[in-house]
Amino acid sequence: MAFIKKKERSRERFSLLLLDLEEYYFEQHTAYQLTSSNASQKRKIRGSLKICSKSIIFEPEQITDPILKIPLRDCKQIEAVEENDRNPFNESKPVGLSIACQQVYFIKESNVVGPYRIERGNTSFFFQLEVSRKTEDVVQTLLQLHRASCLDKLGDQTAMIAANLQSRLARTSFDKNSFQSVSEKPHMECEAEMVTPLVTNPGHVCITDQNLYFQPLSGYPEQVVQIMLHNVRRIYKRRHGLRPLGLEVFCTENDLCSDIYLKFYNTKDRDELYYYIATFLENHMVEHTAESYMLQWQRGHISNYQYLLHLNNLADRSCNDLSQYPVFPWVIADYTSAELDLLNPASFRDLSKPVGALSKERLERLLARYRDMPDPKFMFGSHYSSPGYVLFYLVRVAPEYMLCLQNGRYDHADRMFNSIAETWKNCLEGQLTSKS
């Protein structure tokens, strides 16, 4: 799988991909979900209650039980339940959290990755925190996030959640007990987000004279990300969301995926970290340009695949950003012959033209439509470099990414990838997009 890193923990049921796009994971608490199907059957399910900016997620310890996701915008009531106060379980210490909602998602039922099951209608959930004194704080946090989720304007909602995030970051700092050596000297610390496909994880960055660290605000993943500076081979400044805020670090020369991609909240912090690492490495790494990679490719020192990856890196593309995913050109044009004749020019596409101009009939239709358009005019209605097109090709090896992008569903079967030949034909004949 192209953008799944080798260090990703595939056995974990919960991942940040269960969150909505542009949602943050703030904190987690060990808790018990109390269920009662009838008077004689009561069940206490131990798990982790996760507080996110747009939802509440409960991950049971028992892997056969589904993960529950309750969107905050669908909650009708969130409150702390005291002793004998509407608590159906009447236990010795019944302090807990009661949530009434109109919609809930059931995810990974029987531990199987598949479309989410959605139940609509009035439903109530009761959770008991293992540390009961935190119940009131959790309720207040959820009520604040619930108010944000119910705002009519998306901009106001985003601003309120961002303010909550910045407040949390300001109240915390990097834990220097995570240093690998007591002799390390910290150079700088700042706030940033670790970027992976469709996900950003806020936290604190710290760089010392020996290591680069990232500590997530939420405690997920549990281990602090550590990169030894003497292992760094390449670093790139990146645009993230078309803003100069990204930094990507590679510790191997030919890996497709980097060891970390960071998005900073201001360009100054990004640049300071970049130049500190670059200065540290100036005697240990060779600066590569497009020309140097071309020479290595011509001499057979690197493969076609590696050469294209390097060019994509220099062009500001990254496997961690699905809107700037590496581009590989269509080269072969013959997908029908039983054997490919590499000596026949017709077996290859014309690389002197973009894909959108390879079919004369299609180009004429597009130009006619362009001439009849009011301003602003455009040739293609969408761009090949987008998460939807990337996951079109990768859905079978990374289904959870498609479920994240499609709000718990797969795309319509007729629109999903099933054939290289059919995809190539659609690239030549389709009218709205140009997939390079």
TrEMBL record:
PROSITE patterns, per database record: BEACH, PH_BEACH
All copies of domain BEACH, residue ranges: 282-436
InterPro entries (UniProt xref): BEACH_dom, BEACH_dom_sf, BEACH_Domain, FAN-like_PH, GRAM, PH-BEACH_dom, PH-like_dom_sf
UniProt KW keywords: WD repeat
Gene3D superfamilies: BEACH domain, Pleckstrin-homology domain (PH domain)/Phosphotyrosine-binding domain (PTB)
Domain BEACH-type PH: 181-278
Annotated source species: Aldrovandia affinis
Protein name in the entry: Protein FAN
Signal peptide segment: none
